[in-house]
Amino acid sequence: MDTRDDLLRQGHYACPGCGLAIAMKLVLSALGERTIVVIIPSCEAVISATYPFSALKVPAFHSAFVIAAPTAAGISRALKVRGEDDITVLAFAGDGGTYDIGLQSLSGAAERNEDFIYVCLDNEAYMNTGIQASSSTPFCSWTVTTPKGKKERKKRLMDIIVAHSIPYCATATIGYPEDLIEKVKRAKKKKGTRFIHILTPCPTGWRMREDLTGIVSMLAFETKIFPLYEVYDGEIYRITKMPKGLPVKEYLSLQGRFSHLKEEEIEEIQKNVDKEWARLLYLAKRNAENCA
Question: How many CB atoms lie within 10 A of CB 81?
């Protein structure tokens, strides 16, 4: 990426190897300067900082934890009243602010099909407050609030979002930046509520080396743990890249948060991943058959 187009300045407050900061750069580069960003309390708020020290080169509004979506909706409506239709309103929120605390207000805005792009930057725990588990934290993962491994499975957030029949939603990862950028550009061209779920590895919370962020992002996809797909109008599923189907152990073994796992737990995770992948294939195939 040409750093002249980087809308997140150097010298921001991200930790070394932060996947979230990389995702923010990619999303902003795809949207361009005519963008207004909504930030809520999260790692992205720490990274971007506050006026007059903001690392963002675009206007930003720092809102409350629970209301990223309705704040973006309000700004979008205000711009329309002023006749400014060429500005994209973007909400950045983490998994805590989306899966848990912000889900109700996000659902309301999506039900009304408010006109903005919502990006969930998912590092699978409350990282900036000390690595507490969220409902995005994977099954068996260590956090400070799940020291023996989380007992519950990760919430199917995309299913919830798809149920609102919004024009566009997609998954992406920084391991495949071209795919991520193309999806953001597709979202930009549409109107109404658009949602992009990005997996953003956190070296600190995932207990891994700082230089593994990109590799782990790619392995999340290649092991089918985090498939890359998009859904149009709540019905049309499209898988955008086909994974190699590597064993989940290759992904788990690089992260200290899974170092306590026994073989039977790894087998159970593999079984769940295979089941979810088969389900996604069915949804994509069903759509293809209906369109034939």
Answer: 7
